[in-house]
Amino acid sequence: MNVFVLSNRTERKNRKLLGLTPDSRVLFQAKAAGATKAVLLRRAELKTPLAPDGLELVCEDRFDLDAAPDKVAELLAGTVEGPVCVFDSEAIFQRDFAAYAFARGANTMFLAGSRTVAAVRFGTGPFAVEDIAGRAVDTTAPGGVKAAKKLLLNGLRKPVLVDGIVGYYIMRPITLRVTSVIVNTPIRPNHVTAFCMFLGFLGAALVALAGNRAWMMQVGMLLYFAGATLDCVDGEMARLKYAGSYIGAWFDTISDDLTTAAMLVAMGFYQSQMTGSTLWVMIGATAALVFMVGEVWVYYWLATVYHSGDVLDFQWATGRKKKPSAETFTDYLSLMAKRDFFSFALLVMSLFGLVSWGLVWLSFMMYVFIVYVLVDIVLSLKNRGWRTGSSN
What we know:
Helix content is 55%, strand content 10%. It folds into 2 domains: 2-152, no CATH class; 162-382, Four Helix Bundle (Hemerythrin (Met), subunit A). The chain is elongated. A hairpin with a 7-residue loop joins strand 6 (107-110) and strand 7. The strands form 2 sheets. Strands 3-2-1-4-6-7-8 form a 7-stranded mixed beta sheet, with helices on both faces. It has a two-stranded antiparallel ribbon with strand order 5-9. It contains 13 helices and 9 strands. The chain is an alpha/beta fold. The model is unreliable at 112-117 and 123-127 (pLDDT under 50).
């Protein structure tokens, strides 16, 4: 696919919108959609925008874009063999725009500025216009930048079954605001992950050392919940700035699991101090151990087959025959086992002095998890190679 980008010509051409200039955002979108080369049509005096690794960028400044950018696009579409995508970066596109254009399999242009936002298919006959209003924002219009930010941020939301109930209704509205504030700073997604891990470990330490100081235990639970909440920010920043990485995904996953295991041990230690029974330490430590052992099984397949650091990419043997679009009662019941829910539930329980309840409940979920892992192991042994596609 040949990709041409009409450079932004407005006074906002060098202004970063949620981490990237308009030209850079379109180049990253094109790369994400599979482009290997892009020709940027611009004025000679403009700075070369940031381009993603793996995308060959050629800057062309011999066209009068301001006079008739649509005519330039039509000319290019008629002089290059094969499908052509022409993007006008005066429109701020959602991440799926480049993929949308590539999927058309025909010469495509996105109009912006004072013109109607549409996808125009070039051909031998009249232009076929497909309206895509609502999926792009004209940043030259009053309030356009504000609307574009809102469009991009709302695009970061995930369904309830992915984010979880607390994540969708409580955490995500908070983190989207945090992300919008720090995304234009030098802060990187991995910095956020490290900070969240620090909050999680600090919270666990305060819980373990609280003794009979209930307020200290509650502060620890609050820090743990804050870390779980802000943990959404690193992913949001990575998607906005196209800064996601394999190492970053693993860092995020492992830090989440380690802080959860640490909190289990801390709760057990706290409750043992309150009751004088070492049984609570054993419950918390055993739950943390079986949880991490189960995660090692998931880590192994993520690293060797799925080549991902995101646990959501792991496919369980018990669910591989399920239709992707089907939603069951079990799916919604499983939301109670997600980190967003149990971190919030532990915080609420701590405020009422019910740490023992929280420890028993969370430990029980970890035991259920390891049983689920054992079932997965048995089913995988019965049908060896199904994950790699080599099974019958």
